[in-house]
């Protein structure tokens, strides 16, 4: 049950980060960037870190189940595995969109 709660919390965090990113007005060229505001690179790095943590947690839970540790249920292992898979697929899609946007920009006539 706690795995479902963690997934919901992760989804809420991602949605709030999206809302924050969309709510910020683009600063004018003459205005400096807001102090303390996370950059896109920082936000992307945090997202990659969370995906990595999810995959490591899934791996640890799987290893614990394989070793026969008590208190580790197959349903928890499968849920953790699916969370890791979904988060990795989402990160892959974000990467694909970024690459496509970069390619579109590079193909623009000057």
Automatic annotation (TrEMBL):
Q: Which Pfam family, just one, is annotated for this protein?
A: FliE
Q: Which UniProt keywords apply?
A: Bacterial flagellum, Cell projection, Cilium, Flagellum
Which Gene Ontology CC terms are recorded?
bacterial-type flagellum basal body
Q: Which GO terms of the molecular function aspect are on file?
A: cytoskeletal motor activity; structural molecule activity
Localisation: Bacterial flagellum basal body
Q: Which domain of life is it from?
A: Bacteria
Give the GO terms filed under biological process for this record.
bacterial-type flagellum-dependent cell motility
- InterPro entries cross-referenced by the UniProt entry: FliE
Family annotation (NCBIfam families): fliE
- Which PANTHER family does this one have? FLAGELLAR HOOK-BASAL BODY COMPLEX PROTEIN FLIE (PTHR34653:SF1), PTHR34653
Stated family: Belongs to the FliE family.
Protein name, per record: Flagellar hook-basal body complex protein FliE
**Taxonomy of the source species:** Bacteria, Pseudomonadati, Pseudomonadota, Gammaproteobacteria, Pseudomonadales
């Amino acid at each position: 049950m706690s795995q479902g709660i963690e997934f919901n919390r992760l989804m809420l965090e991602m949605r709030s980060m999206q809302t924050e990113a969309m709510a910020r007005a683009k600063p004018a060229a003459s205005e400096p960037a807001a102090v303390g505001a996370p950059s896109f690179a920082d936000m992307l790095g945090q997202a990659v870190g969370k995906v990595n943590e999810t995959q490591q947690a899934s791996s640890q839970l799987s290893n614990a189940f394989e070793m026969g540790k008590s208190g580790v249920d197959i349903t928890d292992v499968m849920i953790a595995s699916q969370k890791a898979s979904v988060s990795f697929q989402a990160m892959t899609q974000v990467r694909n969109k970024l690459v496509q946007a970069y390619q579109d920009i590079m193909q623009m006539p000057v």
